Every structure is written in C-alpha cells, then in structure tokens.
C-alpha cells in the first residue's frame, strides 16, 4: 500500500465517520512508525542517513563534525519521530572488533544514556567506505567531489542503513 492509498482511505473513513467517531467506537489509535537513522561515526566526521516515514528507502542525510553529533541528534529527534538508531560497528575480516571500537564504544554508551527511549542496533560496517568510494567513481563524480570525505561518510551511513533494512526484510520474509 502506498502513501497515497493511506491518504485516500483516511479521507474515506473521515467522510463516513466524522469527528473521530470511528476511533471512539472501536478504540482505534493512529499508529505512526518512527524513522530509522543510521550513523557512521568517525573521530572527525559522522555520516548520517535516514529512512522515509514508511521505512522503505534509505536516504542520505548529512555529514557533521563528530563533536556536534549529540546536539544534532537531540534537535533532529525533537523534529522527527525516530525509533531506531543503527550504528556502524567496525569489525575485522575474522569478525573480531577492530581497533576503532576504542572510540565507538564510548559513543554508543553515551548514545544509550542520552536517548534511552531509542532502540540502538549495531550493524557491521566492513568495507562501507570502500564501497562508497567505488560508487562515487561508478557514478562519474568528478575527482574534486570524490575527495569530499564527508560525502563518503554520508554514503557509508546510507549503506549501513540499507544493509539493516535488507536484513530485516529477509528476516521477516
């Protein structure tokens, strides 16, 4: 069902049952899914990606200084309903955590403390930066644009989020 279909049904129900009569009759509450945000956290910069309200598509959001991440997230969460935070978790080829975990772990702990109402999910981020760079080349981006490390971080966050969405689709059939 598409967003337009939901609007048509909503308008139809309101025409049939004015003044929320339907809600009062059957105790129906409107349920709105929160978005999912993905974070590719780095020492200097952090890339962010977010789903659409229906959680179907991963969209690039922005890259910000890592020192500003918590202020940004607090502001974003006040404007948008977000239920899940997916954090890229660095692993080696042997599936052991990489040395980057030393600065990721404190970030995750602070995230849990500041936003206890959000579900935090760790997602493997191996090769996301390399895949992001390769996609920039295949997308015919000019060399100057490919040097933008913030863009690589944003695309990496998008890849992490898309991996999470694909994993859940496969898990739930």
Which descriptors apply to this entry?
5-stranded mixed beta sheet, alpha/beta, 173 residues, Nucleotidyltransferase, domain 5, 5 strands, disordered N terminus
Structure commentary:
The protein is of the alpha/beta class and 173 residues long. It has 2 domains: 1-31, no CATH class; 32-172, Nucleotidyltransferase, domain 5 (2-Layer Sandwich), CATH 3.30.420.140. 49% of the residues lie in helices and 21% in strands. It contains 7 helices and 5 strands; from the N terminus they run ααβββαβαβααα. It has a 5-stranded mixed β-sheet with strand order 3-2-1-4-5, sandwiched between helices. A hairpin with a 3-residue loop joins β1 (35-41) and β2. The radius of gyration is 19 Å and the shape is globular. It starts with a helix and ends with a helix. Residues 1-30 have low confidence and may be disordered.
Brief account:
The protein has helices spanning 3-16, 21-26, 69-79, 101-114, 128-138, 143-146, 149-172, and strands at 35-41, 45-51, 58-65, 82-89, 119-124. It is an alpha/beta fold and 173 residues long.
């Amino acid at each position: 069902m598409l967003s337009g279909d939901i609007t048509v049904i909503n308008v139809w129900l309101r025409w049939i049952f004015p003044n929320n009569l339907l809600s009062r009759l059957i105790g129906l509450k409107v349920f709105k899914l929160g978005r999912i945000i993905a974070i590719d956290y780095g020492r200097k910069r952090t890339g962010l990606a977010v789903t659409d309200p229906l959680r179907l598509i991963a969209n690039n959001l922005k890259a910000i200084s890592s020192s500003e991440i918590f202020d940004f997230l607090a502001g974003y969460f006040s404007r948008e309903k977000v239920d899940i935070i997916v954090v890229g978790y660095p692993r080696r080829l042997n599936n052991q955590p990489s040395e980057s975990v030393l600065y990721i772990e404190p970030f995750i702990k602070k995230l849990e403390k500041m936003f206890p109402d959000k579900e935090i999910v760790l997602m493997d981020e191996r090769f996301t930066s390399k895949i992001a760079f390769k996609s920039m080349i295949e997308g015919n981006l000019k060399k100057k644009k490919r040097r933008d490390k913030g863009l690589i971080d944003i695309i990496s966050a998008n890849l992490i989020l898309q991996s999470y969405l694909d994993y859940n689709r496969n898990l739930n059939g």
